[in-house]
Amino acid sequence: MAREIKSNPFLDDDDVDDNEFLNHPRQGKSGYILSNNSAGSEQNQWEIRRQQLLEERRRIEERTLQSTNNSIGLLHESEQVGILTAEELVKQREQLENIEENLDFINSTMRTSQKHINSLKSIFGGIKNYFSKGGQQDPTVSIPVDVSERKHSTALNNTIDNLKSDTRLIKTPSPVATKSTNNIEEKLDKNLEFMSMGLGRLKNLAIGLNDEIEQQNEMIDTIHNKADKADETLEYQNRQIKRILKK
Predict the structure, then answer these.
(1) Distance (Å, whole) CA 212 – CA 89
(2) pLDDT band, very low/low/confident/very high, at 156 (cuts 50, 70, 90)
(3) HEC sequence for the chain
(4) To the nearest whole number, what is the mean pLDDT of the chain?
């Protein structure tokens, strides 16, 4: 009876025979290499992973570039709004100056009318006031201020002119980046430079707006005081005229 040969459980169908392994020539410093399938597959996997990482990097750079483009656009819009606000403040300053000038004229007119009222009170006092050049003024009458002597601030006007003349920051964002890494980095650097410059311009504009608002607040306080003074003087003169008419 033939003896059945049992298969070795430690041998696999894919295992290489010892003689084949020993007879196979050496390849480089890596020793005995029987097949390149495993190494090639691993290399392909690394190449695929590298391409995936490069693609992910490109998408991140494109999103970053688009974000900087949007930021430049917002800076440009903010600057335009700031310039329009500054121009409105300049117009408002002119209106406040006209109001103050009119109040000065009213107070000056009341000063003259007070002299006439005083002349009606006393004939001799009227003659004296008529020929007097520098008589003592009524304490209720304010001295008009020469408009030409006012110190007008032109800082905000200069800021507006400088911003309009400097056209470096315009709304021309860089297009979406290509696959060239150097091109993307150059566009990002340029956008960051524009953003830094835009923030500096907005800072100067904000300082100019703040200074102008503070100055106009002071002008409003001055106008309020002059208006109160004119109102008090008008009431005082009305009482004087009523007393004269009763006599």
Answers:
(1) 8
(2) confident
(3) CCCCCCCCCCCCCCCCCHHHHHHCCCCHHHCCCCCCHHHHHHHHHHHHHHHHHHHHHHHHHHHHHHHHHHHHHHHHHHHHHHHHHHHHHHHHHHHHHHHHHHHHHHHHHHHHHHHHHHHHHCHHHHHHHHHCCCCCCCCCCCCCCCHHHCCCCCHHHHHHHHHHHCCCCCCCCCCCCCCCHHHHHHHHHHHHHHHHHHHHHHHHHHHHHHHHHHHHHHHHHHHHHHHHHHHHHHHHHHHHHHHHHHC
(4) 75
- Judge whether 212 and 157 are in contact, CB under 8 Å: no
208 confidence band (pLDDT: 50, 70, 90): very high
**Is pLDDT of 240 > 60?**
yes
- Give pTM, 2 decimals: 0.59
- Alpha-carbon distance of 208 to 219, in angstroms, equals 16
C-alpha closest to that of 174 among 88, 80, 79, 71: 71
With 50 as the cut, is the pLDDT of residue 177 above it?
no
How far apart are alpha carbons 223 and 125 in whole angstroms? 33
